[in-house]
Each structure stands twice: as structure tokens, then as C-alpha cells.
């Protein structure tokens, strides 16, 4: 895993979202204390101790980013102890330039919009929270149906699945602008059969994310939940496609 510390503000948001009660300064102190006791201590031995409860993540991207920042901070603390400079990086890299909003004709979300939205949500926890609120406020029927359909799944399946719904909704919103209306749960529950995939770029992104979610160390998706999410997310894509006017 790449180590990259993006600064105190970013790491503080990621820690809070994962359920860690420590501030960044407290995390830094824990790292310094561990290295003071044993210079050969590995970050993988200390990082799990920062959490009183199992960390929670809305997506595998968010989990990866938290650990990248923690490993990056560890490397900087260790470098400072050895006489190296401790870089200050308070401002994260700017997000990629957005493709034109609402400019897509037809009903298919281009890959560029999926990539842009995924990168923005990964790089900005505040943008992620705003996007979650938009999904809840603008597509309440679809969200309620999705949650009900996952009632018997593991908790992480619902959390992860809703994270992918956020990506889908934001990609549609950026691609189609005001043409995107309110999706009906009727479109999600209708017959799918052998209908062609309406959103190949978004489907590919989601399937890759589901595969990655089965490989994470903390609360991976089981095969049954992965298969269920794959089916439900296809229905979400169909419902959002039908909502484009």
C-alpha cells in the first residue's frame, strides 16, 4: 500500500468517519511513543490499537485512503526521529478537472464521469458527506428499497452498497444535470431478465469495487453478499437510467 500523508485536516476527517476517537496529534503521539520504545516497531502493530472498536468504512476507497495517510504519518514521524525534515502538507492535491456537467446526451454515463466522481469522493470527505445527503434527499424511495433488500445481509454490505449508490447517483447527476429525475423503486423491482447493461462503465467500476471489498482485511464481503449487491446495484443502475428524462 502506498503511504501518503495528506495533512491534519484530511486525516482528522478520515479518523472521525472510521470511528476513531483520537485526534491527529494523539495519533502522532502514539506513533512517537511506540518508536521511542522500539525503533523496529512496525506500523501494522500499532495502527489497530488506535481503534477501540472495529473501524467502519463507507467504501474500500475510504479504507485505503485512511491507511495510506496513517502509514504516511508513521513514515514522517520515523523520519523526523532520524533527523529528517517533517513535511507539512495541509492541502490535498486538487481534484481532477470536471467534465462538463449536464452535457451528456442519451442515457449512458461515460467512463470519464464515473472516474471523476470516484476520485472527488475519495479525495474529499466533505464532498462524500454532501453526496450522501443528496442521495438520501433526492432518491428516498430508491434508498429505502435498497436498504430493505439488504435487511438480511451483513451490516458492512449495506454500508458498502450505499457507498456505491452514492457514486452512481453523483455520476448520473454530473452527466445529465436537471435531466435526472426521481428514480422509482418500481423500476428497480421490475423484471430484468436478459436486458442489456445500460451503464457499462459504471457497472465495471462497481464490479471491480465489489471484488476489492472481498479482499479487505477488516470485515470483507462474503460471497453471498457480494452476489446480492451485484444484483441490487444492477437494478439501481436500471432505475437511475429510467429516471433520466
Descriptive tags:
single chain, 245 residues, mainly alpha, 61% helix
What this model shows, in words?
The chain is built from eleven helices and no strands. The protein is mainly α and 245 residues long. The longest helix is centred in the first third of the chain and has 22 residues, at 60-81. It is elongated, with a radius of gyration of 20 Å. It starts with 7 loop residues before the first helix and ends with a helix.
* Strand tally: 0
**Helix proportion of residues, in percent?**
55-70%
Give the total of domains.
2
The rounded distance between the terminal residues' Cα atoms is: 42 Å
- Largest beta-sheet characterization: none
Radius of gyration based on Cα positions: 20 Å
Unreliable stretches? 85-92
Instruction: Please tell me the overall pLDDT.
Output: 87
Query: What fraction strand?
Result: under 5%
In one word, what is the shape? elongated
Written as H for each helix and E for each strand, in order along the chain, the element string is HHHHHHHHHHH
Instruction: Provide the structure class.
Output: mainly alpha
Summarize the helices and strands and which ones pair or pack.
Elements: H1 8-18, H2 24-37, H3 43-46, H4 60-81, H5 111-123, H6 125-138, H7 140-149, H8 155-176, H9 185-189, H10 200-213, H11 223-242
Helix pairs in contact: 1-4, 2-4, 5-6, 5-8, 6-8, 8-10, 8-11, 10-11
Summarize the structure.
With 245 residues, the chain is an all-alpha fold. It is 61% helix and 0% strand.
Amino acid at each position: 500500500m502506498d503511504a501518503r500523508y495528506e495533512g491534519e485536516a484530511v486525516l482528522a476527517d478520515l479518523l472521525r468517519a472510521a470511528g476513531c476517537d483520537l485526534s491527529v496529534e494523539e495519533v502522532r503521539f502514539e506513533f512517537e511513543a511506540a518508536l521511542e520504545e522500539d525503533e523496529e516497531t512496525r506500523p501494522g502493530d500499532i495502527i489497530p490499537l488506535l481503534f477501540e472498536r472495529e473501524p467502519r468504512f463507507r467504501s474500500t476507497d475510504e479504507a485505503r485512503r485512511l491507511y495510506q495517510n496513517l502509514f504516511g504519518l508513521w513514515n514522517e514521524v520515523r523520519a523526523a526521529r532520524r533527523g529528517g525534515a517533517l513535511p507539512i502538507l495541509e492541502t490535498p492535491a486538487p481534484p481532477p478537472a470536471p467534465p462538463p456537467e449536464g452535457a451528456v446526451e442519451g442515457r449512458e454515463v461515460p467512463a470519464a464521469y464515473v472516474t471523476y466522481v470516484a476520485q472527488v469522493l475519495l479525495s474529499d470527505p466533505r464532498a462524500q458527506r454532501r453526496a450522501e445527503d443528496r442521495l438520501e434527499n433526492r432518491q428516498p424511495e430508491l434508498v429505502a428499497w435498497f436498504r430493505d433488500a439488504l435487511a438480511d445481509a451483513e451490516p458492512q454490505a449495506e454500508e458498502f452498497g450505499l457507498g456505491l449508490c452514492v457514486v452512481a447517483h453523483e455520476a448520473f447527476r454530473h452527466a445529465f444535470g436537471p435531466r435526472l429525475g426521481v428514480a422509482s423503486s418500481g423500476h428497480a423491482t421490475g423484471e430484468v431478465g436478459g436486458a442489456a447493461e445500460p451503464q457499462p462503465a459504471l457497472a465495471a467500476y462497481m464490479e471491480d469495487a465489489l471484488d476489492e471489498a472481498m479482499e479487505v482485511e477488516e470485515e470483507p464481503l462474503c460471497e453471498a453478499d457480494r452476489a446480492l449487491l451485484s444484483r441490487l446495484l444492477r437494478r439501481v443502475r436500471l432505475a437511475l437510467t429510467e429516471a433520466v428524462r
